[in-house]
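Dear colleague,

As promised, here are the two records you asked about, laid out in our usual form so they can be pasted straight into your sheet.

NAME FIELD: protein one
SEQUENCE, THEN STRUCTURE:
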Amino acid sequence: AGAVAKKTKLYKIFKKSENVARAKKNLRDKQEELQKIITRKVNTSEDKFSIMGKYTSQMAHDIKNPLSLIKLQVDYMKLKYATAEDEIMLSSLHNIEKAIGQITTQVNDVLNFLKDSPTEFKKCDVNEMVNTSLELIKIPDDVRVEVSENHGIINCDEAKTKSVFANVLYNAVQAVGEKGEIIVGINEDEDNVIVTVQDSGAGIPEENLEKIFEPLFSTKKGGTGLGLANCKQILESQNGSISVKNNPTTFTIKLQKYSESS
């Protein structure tokens, strides 16, 4: 039994090491892509790049902490692994993977904000996209998520619109914490499908309601302030919109209905 348990622990370490290696490669790829975009357009006067000039020092500061954590964990593993229990190794690998993930998220936010990829419209089912986006988010056991059974059909860029839903839903999960509820409504008016994401969190300070879609504005520790700004940019490029209100906190996303002529 002891030998089996040892093999199981070693397998877990092997799989976790693979996850860390993949996360590091993904981060390197994203950093290279970001550098190419910035290098190609650094001499332009586009608003996006003047914004990124302001963001550079903030990003450098924000990634310092997770990078320090990675170095600390590696040093700890070197010191302890020869005599430590395998669980310590697993825990260290988990912390490294999490730290790399934090940096990758920041780089992704910047990439998504800067990219000028064309919008590719197609017929999409809102219900399917919302549920697919939810599958990518870790939801605490005591958080209840209710999604409307309506199937609004829209004309949109599927990948970009899914990223909007994922961002707004992830923010809702963070706002709720370990216990609460999130209700996703899907309704229609004459021209649009309207998606509402309501959460039972503490709400957004009133003085921040008008700022949360502005680039670089964030109330999250380590946040880029580009997530919701990118959502707004994506939706407006598709003739849609996003807004928010309190009591309860509700994000409202409007997207054009699909029609044969669109």
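NAME FIELD: protein two
SEQUENCE, THEN STRUCTURE:
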Amino acid sequence: MSDPAVRFVRLASNPDLPLPARATPQSAGYDVRSADDEFTLDPGEIRLVSTGLVMELPEGIECQVRPRSGLAVRHGISLPNTPGTIDPDYRGEVKVALINRGREPVTLARGERIAQLVFARFEVLVVE
């Protein structure tokens, strides 16, 4: 079996933000933050938000990108493709598609927690 470690590399746009982390020891998800400057998401608007991170996943592990319940309940912020999947061979910047399903514009600051990452094993099947 390959090394189960998930590695993150910071891009120049993210020299200072915390790496993804769990809020509590029992949390399944790792909070990820916006590396974009402050922006406003209007009702119905979809925006791709940078994290300033590149992730290296081991073979057989996917990363599911999920909404944060606090943003969803308070402001109607979700992900249009929830859960999003990052495959182990992807090496580009991790970006999060956000949608404002609420009735009011929502301003999000740089460094704000915007989504959570949940890691899961998967099997590759032989299709004949």
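A couple of things worth noting about protein two: The chain is about 5% helix and 40% strand. The longest helix spans residues 69-75.

Best,
R.
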